[in-house]
Design brief:
The protein is an alpha+beta fold. The chain folds into three domains: about 250 residues, Cytidine Deaminase, domain 2; about 45 residues; about 35 residues, no CATH class. It is built from twelve helices and ten strands. The strands form four sheets. It has a three-stranded antiparallel β-sheet. A three-stranded antiparallel β-sheet has the order 4-5-6, with no helix packed on it.
Length: about 375
């Protein structure tokens, strides 16, 4: 006898705004999500975004058939949005995958074959998903959109703005603290009534005095606040004022969360072994870019975008290409072994095809001479 578990009669969920969760604890202090605008104020986050989204956005993408021949059946990926360059569309897409974990395109035109020919990137802030008992509906700008008109990209990695919110917020606060200290003649200080004077310690009067001090500082390097007050300062050295160690640690945390090399964010790692530029780029592709790249490739290869038997692939040849001498030596080996032709090599080097008059003459085909039999005998084919 087969048993079925009874489902609950009713279920509900409550969406709590992030600002209300700042003082709440769920098995530990969970930092609320940080906004994209705040996160991009941190240079380390901006650099990570440009390194991941900017690098992937400029890679050429091709459509291949089953024999891996580049033979696009549509012009969709040649020009996705007729009003926006492809690099901008892809950069926005990969930025969404990095920060939000998903991205959206809306198809604006279908061809005669019922496959998309044009689409536009949709900001994730404009998209909402409403789930009911009968299913889910996607809304753009508050209006429902048919599923056939949307292409949704999902990242295999969790969203950076959620799971790295603490590290980003810490780096932002440290940058603000360093700015405040560097913009003040005193690294940290306070005012006290001068000895022998009597000052009415009214909060309003104190606030007016501090405003007067800051206003004078904006006009001059020093400001005068009157003879009744005396400035005191805490003693910090330059390194402590700039919070160098704390800021470097915060940047290192962002590098870990984004999956980029700390060296690319300006954090020196003394334990690094020597790597050439080609090997560093290969590591960047394998351990950082590959998940986002594969997510977009596989989504664009699905049957609602491309016909069966075709797939979208990013071309990494230009990004991973070595120095000129190394490339030419590799081409020479491939030509000798028959892996490449002259036209394929010229295509990899972004050169036009040679005209027929300048194409190299293929080597002559050697045909073995017929075997001669002494004394006028037969050569073995029956003809003496």
């Amino acid at each position: 006898m087969r048993l079925f578990r009874r489902r609950p009669d009713a279920s509900f969920s409550v969406d709590i705004p992030p600002e209300m969760t700042q003082g709440m604890t769920f098995g530990g202090n969970i930092a609320p999500r940080i906004s994209r605008r705040e996160a991009l104020q941190v240079p380390a986050v901006l650099r990570s975004r440009n390194l991941i989204a900017g690098t992937l956005a400029r890679l050429p993408v091709h459509v291949r058939d089953r024999e891996r021949r580049i033979n696009p059946p549509t012009n969709f990926l040649d020009q996705i949005d007729p009003d926006v360059p492809n690099i901008v569309t892809f950069a926005s897409t990969f930025e969404d995958l990095l920060f939000e974990g998903l991205s959206w395109w809306r198809i604006t035109d279908f061809g005669w074959h019922d496959y998309p020919t044009y689409a536009t990137h949709v900001d994730t802030a404009r998209v909402s998903i409403v789930t009911t008992a009968t299913g889910s509906r996607v809304y753009v700008d508050g209006y429902p959109v048919p599923d056939a008109e949307l292409i949704r990209f999902d990242s295999p990695n969790p969203p950076l703005l959620v799971h790295a919110a603490r590290a980003i917020r810490a780096c932002l606060e440290l940058d603000q603290a360093a700015y405040r200290y560097s913009n003040s003649p005193y690294p940290l200080g306070y005012f006290t009534p001068r000895e022998g004077t009597r000052v009415k310690e009214d909060p309003v009067a104190v606030e007016e005095m501090l405003n007067k001090w800051e206003e004078g500082r904006r006009r001059h390097a020093w400001a005068y606040i009157g003879s009744a007050w005396e400035g005191k300062q805490f003693q910090f050295d330059a390194e402590q004022i700039q919070l160098a160690d704390q800021r470097q640690h915060a940047v290192l945390e962002i590098a870990r969360a984004a999956g980029v090399d700390p060296e690319d964010l300006g954090v020196s790692t003394t334990s690094r072994t020597y790597q050439n530029s080609e090997q560093r780029r290969q590591d960047l592709v394998d351990f950082t870019l590959a998940p986002y790249m594969t997510a977009v490739e596989e989504r664009l290869s699905m049957r609602d975008v491309l016909p069966r038997g075709y797939e979208a692939k990013f071309n990494l040849d230009g990004f991973l290409r070595g120095d000129t001498l190394g490339r030419f030596q590799a081409h020479q080996i491939a030509l000798t072994a028959g892996f490449e032709t002259i036209e394929e090599v010229r295509g990899l080097e972004d050169l036009p095809p040679l005209p027929p008059s300048e194409r190299p003459t293929p080597p002559p085909v050697l045909v073995p001479a017929p075997m001669m039999v002494p004394n006028g005998g037969s050569n073995g084919n029956g003809n003496g």
